[in-house]
Structures are given as structure tokens and as C-alpha cells.
Amino acid sequence: MLTLSDVHTYYGKSHILNGVSLEVRAGEVVGLLGRNGVGKSTTLKTVMGLVRPSEGRVTFEGREIGGMASHRVAHLGIAWVPEDRRIFRLLTVMENLRTGLDRPGVTEARRAELLDKVYASFPVLAERRNQAGGTLSGGEQQMLAIARAMMLEPKIILLDEPTEGLMPRMVGQISEIISVLHRDRVAILLVEQNVPLTLEASDRVYIMEKGVVRHHAPAADLRANHAVIHQYLGV
Amino acid sequence: MTSRSVAGYWTGFAVVLALLVAAPLVLPEFWRRFVTEILIWGLLAMSSDILIGYTGMVSFGHSAFFGLGMYGAAAALLAVRPANLWLALLSGLVAAAVVAVFVAYFATRLRDIYFAITTLVFSQIFYVIIFTWTDVTGGENGLNFARPTLSIPGLFSIPFTTETLHWFVLGVVTLSYLILRRITQSPFGMVLQAIRENEPRTRAIGYRVERYKIVAVMLSGLFAGLAGILYAIQNKFAAPDFVFFLVSGETVIFNVMGGMGTLVGPVAGAAFFLLLREGFSRFFTEYYLIPVGLIFTAMVIFMPQGLLGFLRRRLNQ
Amino acid sequence: MGLPVEQILIQTINGLVNGMILALVASGLTLIFGIMDVVNFAHGELVMLGAFVGATALGVTGNFWLALVVATLVIAAFGAILQVSTLRPLLGRDPLTTILATFGVSLVLQKYALWQWGPSARKLQEPISAQFSLFYLQYPWYRIATAVLSAAIIGALYLFLKYGKYGIGIRAAMQDRVMAQAMGIPVPLLHTAVFAIGAGMAAASGVLFGPLAGVTQTIGADFTLRAFIVVVVGGMGNLGGSILASIFISLLEAYASLIVSPAQAVIVSFVALILTLLFRPTGLFVPTAR
Questions:
Q1: C274–B118: do the CB atoms touch at under 8 Å?
Q2: For residues A216 and B135, which has the higher predicted lDDT (pLDDT)?
């Protein structure tokens, strides 16, 4: 469904992505592991149209999307949950969710339906629905960021380090949310530093190093054989 | 610069200088004064380039320096008889320096847009004061005075003719250019450019950015004031119009059109603008600003490096 | 020398009236800056053009309110065209460039107005000429109407931003343009729409202000300068702040005119700006805990 072929991306003069190729099929959870600075976030940003690839192709459902404006990418069914969450601090929880709902083709009824569904899945958000986003705790903000992405009814969610800075209890919740999404056939491209979580949640895993994909295997293989993980991540 | 381009540069410089020296001898009266005016506005534009082009601080307040230099000189020329050139120069420079101190203070505490707006406000403050303090400044009508003679007390006193005034102005402007060029090519100038490119990094390396900015503003203000003094001497009057921020705006136009950060660019920009104005006034009378404004806006969008911007790297090594 | 209370009260009302009109101009400017980081130097000229278009429309239709609507729509459309042609290409460039580009545009617009409508002042006849007794003065109802109408327009803007469909998108884009766009919000389109709204509001204030001071090409520059001061004092990008600052500064100027001439009273706003920049650079009306 989503394919990157030999993608090169620059940030100014830095050559961040050096020929990245990977693939996410419909309904899959794909993990992307690697040390800090190897280009994992940049890969997601390239898909989302926030950075333009200088070379290579990014295709989604057969359509070339490299360099496409990010609001169009979102309309195609790709949602982005960034590393620092980036919720709209001055908007209420509900208004944050509305940013994903106010798009063409969504009826009032559907909006209400989606809101109800997300409030059911995230009761704490329902409780705080009229509070400003900036007043939420770190874990709550992360949930809001994911919930907001779900409002786009995406076919794939780009999740960038969702468990960063969260307490262990919250990490478990994130893990649950990922399985719920997986069950609902939403594909996920998961960038993470948390190896156990990634191995457990993913179907397949890519490991990146210095702007390229160095290793690719089904998660089951990596769960059984930790040597590879040690080699690339030193964990 | 390579030795070949150094030679090329100085040759070009000599040629232009020779042309400017010859100008009053070959051109008709109107154009003689026109060339002198280009030089004066060019000096103003150069002074502004120090801030905008080299340090990256946009200032809409150069009319304040210019205007106060003008009025400062006027004060000396009216107060002391016979009108003394050197006193006028001194008085104008002091006035401009005082304004520069104010602006310098704010330069260190404000960045970008806030600085630009504040300088604009400053020039308007001075405009309002000068416009309304009729007793001292002549208000709307400005001040009229006699042109001083080129004199050294006790030795000689030669009144200026159009030609000799032109050469005097040319001398002052050329000297100013050489001084400014020396400064921008010195380590000091390099630091200014570093501040323009990346201020936080320059600060992190250890440079006291505030000090450099203060000096840049003082330099800029003094030379702008000098331009004001020359204008007063040439035209024998001072008027609040020259303190109105439109003058600052035009200065910025000279900088952008000519090429920021080159020193010569803004002079070319001034010449270009004044020629356009002259040319368009023939057809459009007072509406010349419509085509000129359109050209300027188009240049900002499509040709932001200006006419001579391509020389920037060459000239600043 | 004791100032009569009546004079102070009258100046308070004058200050509030002027403040509301200025608020209409400043909120457009703030909105534009908030969403696209553009300092619109030509904003005052949009006010001026609105006044002229309004005067012409009044001449043609004979109805002030119709002229107000026409001027607002025409200038809003013009604003959209302006944004697409000159500002969109500058997206992502140094903010200095937008100041310069809008400055160039302001020069062109000012001279264009001179060319189109000539140098003599246009008269914009107020629709309500009734007056009421305020102490020793006959105070025009029209002034009160202006303040009320401006407040209504600003109120409508507020409601739109708070509850309207694109209102939330605009507020999101003001806070985090990149994330808003990643949420599917068509940010480039919103830029044009906001610029058009700002231009329309500027035009409306031009028409409302017209009967109070006459319509000439120079009123634009005055508004630009005042609006800038207000936006900085109120906190750049802070809508509520710029409204409060507009009223605050206009009141200060009104009181100052009791002591010095109106031409000099304007220094008060300059001083307010400088003090704000020195002591509370994020804005006088911005809560410090952010």
C-alpha cells in the first residue's frame, strides 16, 4: 500500500536519507528501529510531504505522493502522529479532534459517531473534552495526538516514538491502542526506541542505520534472535 | 580576492570616479545637480547597507539620522555668521550621533520586525517633533539658510560653485565609501556578516553581539547624518519631509534594488531609482511611483539580490 | 488647572469610538500576522481604498450601508488577489521580504488612489445625522453607531473563529501551521481567506471612519503606523490583546489631546510602544504565564 523506493532526502545540506526503501501493506504494523539520528523521523516526514525527497519514489495505493502537499496527503488517508505530539495547546481537546473532522465529505452524523467512538476508547479525553490541550499531562497528550489522527479515518498512521517520555503504565496503554488499531485494519508505520514494544506489536521490522535500511525481518524472527538487535542498536 | 579581480575592481573604481569627476564639466546644469544628488542619496544608501546588508537589521529609521544631520547642520549655519562649513559638519554629525545612540540602545534589545517597527516609529517621532516645534525648526516650512564657503579660517574662503560643490561632495562620498569598505572588509565586518547569517551561533562562539550591533548602528547613523549635512549644504534648506519615514522607505528601496551587502549596490540602486523617477515623471508626472513601486515589488519577489547582488561574494572576501 | 470632568468623559467616549475603529483594522492585521507571519505594510492602504470605494459606491447608490457592504466585498476580493500574486510566492522566505513587498505594494496603492480619485478629499456622508446632548456638546449618534458596528463585526469574527467550521482550522494554523496542514487543513487556502477577511475588515473601517475625517490618500499611512503599534503593544498574533490595545492607545491619545494638539498627541502611542518593547516585549495584554 505504501512504498518507498530508494528515497534520498536532504535537510539543508545534510544528506539524511541515503536511499531508503521500505514497504507497508494494508492492515500491517511495521516497525522502524534504529539509533537516534539515523533518519527514522525524516522517513515519516518524507511520506507526509513535510520534506521533499530529492530522489526516489514514494507511492501510496499506486499513486506517486513524493513532494505532495501534506494536506493532500492527509486526505489520501495517511495520518501523522509526530514525535513531540504537537497537539494544539490553545484549542480544547474537542477542538483538537475537530481539526481532523472538518473535512469535506463528512456528515454531521458521521462526525458525532466518530467523536463518540473515540471518547469511548479514550475515556480520559471525554472527561477533559473542554479543557485546553496544553493543560493535559504528557500521556494524555499522546492519547489526544493519536485520537486526533484517528479522526482522519486513515488507512495508515505514521506513529513517531509514541512511548517517548511516558511512564511504564502508559506504555502499556499505547501498546493496547496499537492492537486495537491493528484489529480495525488500520496500518501502522511505527518508529520507536522501545524495542520490546515494537517487536511485540509489529508484523515486520526494518532496522535503519545512517539513512538506509540495513536489516529487514519478520518480528517473530527478531523476537527469537536478539543478536541482530544487539548488533544494530546495542541494546 | 584574486589579484586579477583586485586589479579589475580598482580599474572599475577609477573609471567610475573619473566619470563622476568629469560629470559637471560636460553635463548640462540640471544633470549636474542630479548627479550630485545621486551621490548624496548613494551615501545614505551605503550607510543603511551597513545595517541592512551587512548586519541583517532592517531599519526604517534612516530618515531620522538623515534629517537630524540636516537640521543639525542648519542650526550651525543659522547660528554662526559667517556660515562655517566645518561647524555645520560637526553639528550635524553630533545630532545624528545622538539619535544613533537611542537607536543603538534598542537595537541590542529587539530583533527583526520589532526593531524595524521601532525605527519607523522613531523617525515618525522626530517628524512630529520637528513638524510641530515651529519656533525652533520652522515647522512645516523648514529652514532656509546660506550655503557656507569652503574655508579654513584665516587662510582662504572660496564660495562653492556647482562644480566645486559637486567635487566636494564626490570627495566626501568617495572617502566615506573607502572608509566603509575598509571596515566591512576587516574582521569587524566579517563578524557583522556572521551576525546576519546566524546570530545565535555567532553569540555562541563568544562574540559580544550587542557591542557589534551598537557600533554598526553608530556607523550607519553617522554616515547617514553626513549625507543629510551634504544635502543641507547643497540645497540650502531643511524640511520635515526629509524626516518622514518615506525617506527611510526609499533608502530601503535603494538597498534592495541595488543589491544589499555590497556597498556599491545601494549607490547603484539610488541612481537607478532616481533615474527611473526622472524618466517616469516625464510620462506619469506625479504618479511615477506606480510603475516604480511595481518594479520594486517585482524585484523583491523575483530578483531579491538586486542589480549588483551577484557581486556580493566577490566584493566581500 | 482642574480639567472639567465633562471634557474627560467626552474624550473617553471619543477614545472608545476611535479605539473600536482601530481595533477593526488591527484585528485584521493581527490575524494575518498570526497565520502567515506577514507584516502587512499595505494594510493602511486597504483602509484608504475601502474608504474611496465606499465614497464612490455611495455616490452611485445613495445608500451608506450598501456602500459599506460593497466596499468590504470589493477590497476583500482585491486582498485575495493581492495575496495570491505577491505573497504566496514569498512563502518560506525571510520575513523581511514580505515587509518589503507589502511596502512596495503600499506605495503603488497610495499613488493609484491619487490617480484614480484625484487629490481633493472625498466626502463620505454619514447615514445618521442626528445628535444627542452630551453635557455642553451635541454629540453625533453616528459616532456611537460606528463603535457599535465595529464591535459587532469583531464579535462576529470572534464567533467565527471559535465555533465556525474553518474558524478552528484558522486557529490551529495560527498555532502550528505544519501540524494543521498535516491534519488535512488546506492552509494555503486559509492564508488567502484570512488575508481577504483582514482586507475586508480594513475596508469596512475605512468606510466607517470616512465621515469622521474625510477621505484622502494619506489616511492609510496613519492607520498602518497606528495598527502596527497596537499589534505590538497587544502582543503579536494575539487577537484579544490587539483589541484591548487599540482601545487603550486610543484612550491615551484622546486624553492627551486635552493637553497638547492632536498632531502631538500621537506621540503618546509611540511612547506606549517603546515602553512595551522595553518592559513587556511580548505585549502588554498577554498573560505572562504561557
A1: yes
A2: A216
